[in-house]
């Protein structure tokens, strides 16, 4: 988006109605230039109403992600200092890693598409243009490395809550890194860490959320998208502005809990959202795979699963499948 469009948008976001002349004076440009900027904002998906003798009013923000929208959101954030937005990138995760030394405070990277998006175990993460949210959030805690086990528990709750509140859908947590709706995966996240001397310096959390239906999703029985779950009759764009605002609020809240509170403070809520308890699952750890039923999670964040011989397994990290 051009600098001028960004400035016009900023002015419109602050006021109810604003005349073209006022905007022109404030920005030191002609009224025609204002009119052109408004026209191009409309083309980008913003709904700008114009009323004779009153001026322009921003009625609805764009359903598309862009730098202006994201920057204005991060301005209200008590945690994230900045946002980097790219229309296209190899991977937001890679870009985030590359910026870690330059940006001292927590920050966010968002992309319109990823050409080399990757998931856990280096699997490909299909990231077609404008079909999903592709985001990496960088946190800079100063805590011991072993605390990272709990990070996923707090973050999974943040993502599930944001989806529920924004789209009114029942989002369940599939330990350790997935969010499901109606038995299908809608979101996965990936947690990577930079540490030194057993202390965490940065956590890079990559979140991939399927927003709209894609070919890949129809091929997979185990995947879904927000659009599919909302079962919209007419093609309607999702309100990304509200969703991202909510996601940032929930990430901030749960990150704060993670830093300051034990897992027990959210354990009950987390368990109520978990979709794995009491179900026979295939559990793949580094060196072995076995079938067992998850029955509980400890205050330290270990999953307890009982196999058919009655033996209880304490699991720190694994891939689990229904
Ligand atoms: C998984 O379920 O395996 C985790 C998927 C994580 C995908 C996200 S999309 C944004 C960020 N950039 C990447 O390349 N991966 C993560």
TrEMBL record:
Flavoprotein is among the record's keywords: no
Family matches, as Gene3D superfamilies: 2.30.30.100, Bira Bifunctional Protein, Domain 2, Winged helix-like DNA-binding domain superfamily/Winged helix DNA-binding domain
DNA-binding region per Swiss-Prot/TrEMBL record: 20-39
Binding residues for biotin: 114, 118-120, 185
Pfam families named among the record's database cross-references: BPL_LplA_LipB (PF03099), HTH_11 (PF08279)
Superkingdom of the source species: Bacteria
Enzyme class: ligase
GO molecular function: ATP binding; biotin--[biotin carboxyl-carrier protein] ligase activity; DNA binding; transferase activity
Reactions that this protein is recorded to catalyse: biotin + L-lysyl-[protein] + ATP = N(6)-biotinyl-L-lysyl-[protein] + AMP + diphosphate + H(+)
GO cellular component, as recorded: cytoplasm
BP GO annotations: protein lipoylation; regulation of DNA-templated transcription
Family: Belongs to the biotin--protein ligase family.
Function: Acts both as a biotin--[acetyl-CoA-carboxylase] ligase and a repressor.
Protein name listed in UniProt: Bifunctional ligase/repressor BirA
């Amino acid at each position: 988006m051009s600098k001028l469009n960004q400035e016009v948008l900023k002015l419109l976001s602050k006021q109810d109605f604003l005349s073209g002349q006022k905007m022109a004076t404030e920005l030191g440009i002609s009224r025609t230039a204002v009119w052109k900027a408004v026209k191009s904002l409309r083309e980008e998906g913003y709904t700008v109403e114009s009323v004779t003798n009153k001026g322009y009013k921003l009625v609805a923000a764009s359903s598309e992600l862009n730098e202006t929208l994201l920057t204005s959101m991060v301005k209200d954030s008590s945690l994230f200092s900045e946002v980097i937005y790219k229309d296209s990138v190899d991977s937001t995760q890679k870009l985030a890693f590359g910026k870690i030394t330059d940006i001292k405070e927590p920050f966010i990277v968002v992309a319109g598409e990823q050409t080399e998006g990757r998931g856990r175990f280096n699997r490909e993460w299909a990231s077609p243009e404008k079909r999903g949210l592709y985001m990496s959030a960088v946190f800079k805690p100063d805590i011991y490395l072993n605390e990272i086990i709990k990070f996923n528990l707090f973050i999974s709750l943040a993502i599930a809550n944001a989806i529920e509140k924004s789209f009114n859908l029942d989002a369940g947590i599939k330990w350790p890194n997935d969010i499901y709706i109606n038995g299908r995966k809608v979101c996965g996240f990936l947690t990577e860490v930079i540490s030194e001397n057993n202390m965490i310096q940065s956590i890079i959390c990559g979140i991939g959320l399927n927003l709209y239906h894609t070919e890949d999703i129809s091929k997979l029985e185990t995947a879904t998208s927000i659009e599919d779950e909302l079962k919209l009759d007419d093609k309607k764009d999702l309100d990304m502005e509200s969703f991202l605002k909510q996601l940032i609020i929930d990430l901030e809240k749960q990150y704060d809990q993670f830093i300051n509170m034990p897992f027990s403070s959210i354990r009950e809520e987390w368990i109520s959202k978990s979709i794995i308890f009491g179900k026979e699952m295939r559990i793949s750890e580094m060196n072995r795979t076995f079938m067992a039923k998850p029955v509980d999670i400890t205050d330290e964040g270990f999953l307890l699963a009982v196999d058919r011989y009655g033996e209880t397994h304490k699991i720190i990290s694994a891939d689990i499948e229904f």
